[in-house]
Design a protein that fits this description.
With 25 residues, this protein is mainly alpha-helical. The chain has one helix spanning 3-24. The longest helix is centred in the middle third of the chain and has 22 residues, at 3-24. The protein is rod-shaped. The termini are far apart. The model has no long low-confidence stretch (mean pLDDT 88).
């Protein structure tokens, strides 16, 4: 099982959301 890839993808989405919130706020 390759969980690292899934974690990386989820982490990227999380960071992207944080960046959007930071830019919007």
């Amino acid at each position: 099982m390759n969980d690292e890839k899934g974690r990386r993808f989820a982490g990227g989405l999380f960071l992207s959301a944080l960046a959007k919130l930071g830019a919007g706020g």
